[in-house]
Amino acid sequence: MVPLMLRHCLVLIATLVLLSPVKAQDSDLQMLLQANRAAIEKASRSTIEPVLDALVASKLPSVSSFLEKWREKEVWQRKDDGRFFFARPADGGQYMLIDIATGAEAGLADKSAIDQLKPNSGVRAVIASTLVEFQLSDPDPLRRTEALTALERDANESHLEPLRGAIESETDPALKARKIRLERLITIRFGSDAARRAEAIRSFAGDLGVDARGALNPLVATTPGFAEDLPAGVNVARMLTPGKSIDLDTAYGMLVDADKAPRVVSTEARKQALIAHMADGQVGGIPVASLDTQEARDRAYMALVADGRVPPLITLEMKQAEVARYRFYEAYAETDPTLTEAAEDTLSSISLQVGFNRFLDLVLDGLSLASIYFLAAIGLAITFGVMGVINMAHGEFIMIGAYTGYVVQQFIPNYTASILLALPLAFAVAFLAGVALERLVIRHLAHRPLETLLATFGISIALQQIAKNIFGTQARPLTSPAWLDGAWVLNDVVSISYIRIAIFVLALVFLVLLLFILNRTRLGLEVRAVTQNPRMASSMGINPDRINMLTFGLGSGIAGIAGVAIGLFAKVTSELGSGYIVQSFMTVVVGGVGNIWGTLAGASMIGSLQKAIEFFNPSNTLAAQTYMIIFIIVFIQFRPKGIIALKGRAAGD
Amino acid sequence: MTGMIHDASSMNALLEVTSVSVSFDGFRAINNLSFQIGGHELRAIIGPNGAGKTTFMDIVTGKTRPDSGRVRFGEQSLDLLKLRESDIARAGIGRKFQRPTVFEAQSVFDNLLMALKKDRSPFAVLRHRTGAEDRTRIEEIAAEVGLAEQLHRRSGELSHGQKQWLEIGMLLAQDPKLLLVDEPAAGMTLGEREHTTDLLKAAARTRAVIVVEHDMEFVRRLDCQVTVLHEGSVLAEGSLDHVTANPDVIDVYLGR
Amino acid sequence: MERSFLIRQPSVLVFLGLLALFTIGATVLSDGYGLGLMSTSFVKILGKTLCLCLVAIAMDLVWGYCGILSLGHFAFFGLGGYMIGMWLMWARTKDIVIASMATAELPATAGEIREAIGTQIFGVVGGSRIPAIWAFADSLAIQLILVLLVPGLLALVFGWLAFRSRVTGVYLSILTQAMTLALSLYLFQNDSGLRGNNGLSGLQNIPGLTDLSQSVISIWFLWASALALALGYLGTAWVVSGKFGHVIRAIRDDEARIRFLGYSVEAYKLVVFVLSALIAAVAGALYYPQAGIINPAEVAPIASIYLAVWVAIGGRGRIYGAVIGAALVSLLSSWFTGGQAPDIPLGFYTVRWVDWWQVLLGLGFVLVTLYAPRGIGGMFDRLFRKDVS
């Protein structure tokens, strides 16, 4: 670094030059360059530094782009007056000169009249490094952020010094933190001072950033190796025991690859050898026709070996003996054990943190799934509780809600407005459908729950097919408003999409709303009365028909809302509802009938359980669902009436 | 006083209920109830609504599990609390419900056939052939309860009283050691009641019979020991005249 | 004793007679053995329909007679199909593999044959390793036993768990539905060992009978299906006509009451459930060789619900009702969805039955439930003034 004083001197020189008889309209940058003209024309790694410092110190806005162009060999010098320009080819072998400060065109020039500046690679590296520092110290915070982001994406050794230089002067605390973090990351990867690297490594203990793990993991990467005696200077991660921590065949294969042991003759190779040595219907004295067992083939091959016509068989014992002569190990690519040790420590503390945060993420996932199940199932639970009937067409009410949302979006292009309208409309449409179903079918099947189940199934297949006939079989999109795009990112591990948060809020709203309706309103009182004792309720003047109709409508309406919610993250098809119906049943059965809290408990249990199983077996959501259903079947053994069961005579046997 | 009456039978009580309590959602339906009945005895249990009569029967037949207490039955002192309903029935306890519950879709004969004392395991039943002996027995029982003419009618077509008799007939066919009968006379005409009384008395000659009843007139006709239940425990025991003279009982029945 | 049973059940004789007539008629009209007036594919449809009638009987036994509305019976049907399908596919692949290896320079070893079979069968799910459940696939006898054993065991375990905890009514229906959903999801996985969503295919080719044309094989299967249906009908009629039948109907009508008569309701339900599962498994084992392919979608919950619909439309609690329902609805269904039914032009809209049959079926089913709860069988009964129980 050039001392500050020198910089001031240079500026002074520049100012002096300014006074000299150069054209008056020259830009500050041009003047500064003219002042250092000699050094720029014959740039070398050792002499260029003061010039660059002067440029940086000038704090001129156009310096950055000039440096970039210079590095890219895109700066030209006019021979007659020595001025610097950018240039682009124009007609007739001429070049259009461009002012370095303003970017304005500055007239045509013949190729012969200008010289291209061709800084060598050493100079270019110094320019680049200066450029980094320059950009990182740019007065515009936006430019600094840009430069930092570029650096985070792709950094190398040469950036370390300029970055360090740009930390102290940083005024924005967020950017400063980012710079410090980046400095440590680059130190880990490219630092030359082992102590400093180790310090940087340890500073990331418990850090959740993907970048930290990205910087640390290469340090602990290992390659397997072997030697008769452990060589010095190898940073051994762990020893390998053939047959235990390393496969015998793999170990032997390593010997073969290093030409320390003869290659194994594979079964297929032996077969080919037998075929190659067939003669007169015989191989090694054994008739070909009898070679239909592996034992017979082995015997024939051994016969060929005895004749020395094929390479000998490597037996298991031979492999073991060969392998036993060497010691196998895994070695770090990084040779400094203090660094690998620090990295291992840091990584294990990170993985502890990551584990905890994964769990947190899982809980959030489970919660969001639970809120979907809750929305899908609560309507079913209410109608089941009040009327004792299972509505198989419940899934189709969900579908109706989703299609309502889709249709609304066809008319209202504003997504926010359309979703806000779709929610009440979906409720209304599904409510009406539910009321119609109750009046036309279910009422006539009172006290025949199994018949009701089947009749509503008939409705279900009819509705599904009608939807298919109207909307076709292809999936229809239900687009969420832009403000629901993206996710709330807590850190690199925990994030949750805004749609899911919205659904969670929606579920919460309906939980509160339903609790209010059931516990604080006349309708709720009557619903609870009918749930607990229909005969008594009707003798007290409650009209059960009206209650049944309203609760059925309410349950169906919420299904419609659930449909809009589900449609936001899943495509809308005629099978949308049937995908959720069994899970909804499960939620009701597990939670217990006729109780909002029960449904909440059931939804939470099924949602979190499904996520938990998926967590242990992430590749296979099908298996997760299978295990979950089996779990539920077993769970019913212990709580046949669900988590929250009505007790005593009210439950009715 | 009641102890004196039961000294003889308590030596070999058929059913022995000791300190049983059960509550539903905080309501004590049965409160520290103790009760005994001998091998060949007719007993009436009376009590106002909610006295725990039906719950008592539920406990004995295994439908309801008490919170505490013991229920022993028979010579081997079987612990009924450890058995399922069907095991208790097979051990020799028959129950007639308040509302007549017969299998209405099936004939009187088939109803009695199912009740007949036989091996009840599925595979034995699968192999079962209805022989002449079974027919005779079913006809006997039908004649006893007055349904000889109705044997091949669907039991759903029977009158209310006939259904009650069919149910009693089914109990007899089971040949239980103990019969629990819940309000057998409800909804019966006078003539039907007399017939029912005779049936129960005859049954009590060979087994123990417990009749739960509201109707004092009917209880009087039964002419047997009476146990009065109130708020889940025994209020009084003895002959009908004896208990109806008890001031506590009068208090309970006439209200305070 | 059989005599008295048949005399008491004249409808059994009528049914057996009709079935025999039907089978003879189909044979006479068929391509393989008769006049060639009936296509082989139609013979297969008839044969498959007989199998569906058989599984409908199983459903009727468990629902119509015992009151357990199982919405998972196609799990047993499908498992029966999978078990026989394993042998069919294995043995057929083995024949092909051996034939293709006959020209190799060295005679094939058993290991090589196995490996080639593994590649052939499981290549489609990305592997050649033979899963352990295929250990017996080479043996027809063992796979035939497994046809009964595997569905039977599933029914036994599931039934024991469900009945023991006294889950009844719609709860039980939902649990059975969950059971078949779990099975189908499991089978959909590639590592279920049963080729994931590809299922088992080529089942119409019977190993060892490659010289015979499908027209002949289809008739054989028609006979086998008819025989199975006859035996199933006879057996079920026998079971439900005796005292056992009275007891299970009593369970259907009032489970608590029969318990106080000393019958272990759980044991009876379990016996009926397992028996019914076994019948369904046999039906499945006969169905899928005629269908040619089985995949996990076959055991999805919807199929089992359709089964209940057939039985309800036919009239439950009557064996012939189940048969009528299954035959009628499945034949109508293939007629409508096969595109043979004429479209109805309404001017502004053309009703295409391929699109509207489901709607018709669904609504028709609702109407049957509302206005003819005893189904078609119930109308029969009214016609012959039969006393139903």
Automatic annotation (TrEMBL), chain A:
NCBIfam families (alphabetical): urea_trans_UrtB
Membrane topology term: Multi-pass membrane protein
The entry's keywords: Amino-acid transport, Cell membrane, Membrane, Transmembrane, Transmembrane helix, Transport
Species in which this protein is naturally found: Hoeflea marina
One Gene Ontology MF term: transmembrane transporter activity
Protein name (Swiss-Prot/TrEMBL): Amino acid/amide ABC transporter membrane protein 1 (HAAT family)
PANTHER family attached to this UniProt entry: ABC TRANSPORTER PERMEASE PROTEIN, BRANCHED-CHAIN AMINO ACID TRANSPORT SYSTEM PERMEASE PROTEIN LIVH
Gene Ontology CC annotation, any one: plasma membrane
BP terms from Gene Ontology: amino acid transport
Membrane-spanning ranges: 367-390, 419-437, 498-518, 549-569, 581-603, 615-638
Family that this chain belongs to: Belongs to the binding-protein-dependent transport system permease family. LivHM subfamily.
InterPro entries the record matches: ABC_transp_permease, ABC_UrtB_bac, BCAA_transport_permease
The UniProt record lists the keyword Cytoplasm: no
Subcellular location: Cell membrane
Main location group: membrane
From TrEMBL, chain B:
Pfam families reported in the protein's UniProt record: ABC_tran, BCA_ABC_TP_C
Kinase in keyword set: no
GO molecular function annotation: ATP binding; ATP hydrolysis activity
Keyword check for Nucleotide-binding: yes
Origin: domain of life: Bacteria
Keywords of this entry: ATP-binding, Nucleotide-binding, Transport
GO cellular component labels: plasma membrane
CDD domains: ABC_Mj1267_LivG_branched
NCBIfam families, per the entry: urea_trans_UrtD
Annotated protein name in UniProt: Urea transport system ATP-binding protein
Organism: Hoeflea marina
Automatic annotation (TrEMBL), chain C:
Database matches in Pfam families: BPD_transp_2
Keywords: Cell membrane, Membrane, Transmembrane, Transmembrane helix
InterPro entries cross-referenced by the UniProt entry: ABC_transp_permease, ABC_transptr_urea_perm_UrtC, LivM-like
UniProt membrane topology term: Multi-pass membrane protein
Subcellular locations according to the entry: Cell membrane
Domain of life: Bacteria
GO cellular component: plasma membrane
Example GO molecular function: branched-chain amino acid transmembrane transporter activity
TM segment ranges: 12-30, 42-63, 70-90, 140-163, 170-188, 217-240, 267-287, 293-312, 319-336, 356-376
Protein name per the record: Amino acid/amide ABC transporter membrane protein 2 (HAAT family)
